[in-house]
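Appendix B, Record 12. Input sequence as logged:
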Amino acid sequence: MAKDLEIWENFKSGDKSALSYVYFQYFHSMFQYGIKFKNDPEFIKDCIQDVFFKLIQAGENLSPTDNIKFYLFRALKNVIYKEFEKLKKNELVEFLPLKFDVAFTIEEEISAKENASNKELVLLKALDSLSERQREIIYLRFECAMEYDQICDIMELKNDSARKLLFRAIKSLREIISDQIKLPILLLIRFSQKNMF
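Logged structural output:
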């Protein structure tokens, strides 16, 4: 993404318009990603501010990137984990591990309905059966449109492991859905028109 590469280079050099663009363009998606780890808006906002503070401090020493969103997500996840560890050491939070808890768009739409159809309820059940890691990889791949190398970096996985994890998640959804109703996996259509591989 040539545009991202150029904006990032301007950001690194201290260009205020590039800083403003990156902040306002990505704050919301960073917040939406961060809140899935810890449902504490103020904590997540503080972590995002910390990410930008560190990026501004690093300036020209930042690595180049042609995908700003990926760079920011990876940085935010690192900050969230570090800050959470500090809170635990200071005994300011209960000893509960961070957990990636995503509600997909389609889940929210179905849950908001008063009279969900049998097909929709089956789809909710299928999504609920996914592990935390499966939900995270589906979120990153389809909702955030990230490539496998980026997902591997964020989730600390090898490429083969990431592909297997996503394949198993989709297979699990397909099995639960096809066992109960004859329904294609609408979920993936909602996430992306792109092929899985």
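The chain has two domains: 2-89, 105-191.
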